[in-house]
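Section 5.1 Outputs to date
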Amino acid sequence: MDIELYYQEKGTGEPFIFLHGNGENSSYFNNQISYFQNKYRVIALDTRGHGKSPRGNAPFTIEQFSCDLYDFMNAHQIPSAIILGFSDGANIAMKFAMKHPDMVKALILNGGNLNPKGVKRTTQLPIEIGYKIARHFAAKSPDAGKNAEMLGLMVNDPNSEPHELSRITMPTLVICGTNDMIKESHTKEIAGNLPDAALTILKGTHFIANKCPAEFNRAVDDFLNQR
């Protein structure tokens, strides 16, 4: 690995890893960290090029981020963990769980998608326009270049097929908001193609973990207690 990921760690016990979304950092999960640290060894990462983690020279893709997670877990001698991913973090978690199912004890996928078509068009179209503009100015502006990379994650990634989800055999909670930016039909397709999945839809937007932490934490806690 060409970089070291920044992370927050609280509590002891079974490892519980949090993966944030595009353009965010580990602080997105502050309400989850404080809630779950009493029961688990909570580890919240900053993804490559996000928060306090350096960009490095490797590709800026969901696939690479899943490789970074593998390297992180090996470096910190974590043979397996519960993994909760939000948005792009859920996409990283899905990719990781497909490749390393033995390293995932349980999975929580919040607002993930298999491909860009899973995002509502009203959300995706401005992202695509912004990406084209940022790419146009990328050669002249480092900020535009960075913005193009971030937006590119939502335009060019992820690229997973429904049948690939059959590799994710561990207990999985698929959770989203009633007014999520991911199409509800797409979220149901993900849950329907997972061998051992529960689907929970909470009142709220894409950002339910942050905006409705009590309801979100309770749903995750209940799921983990039942596995």
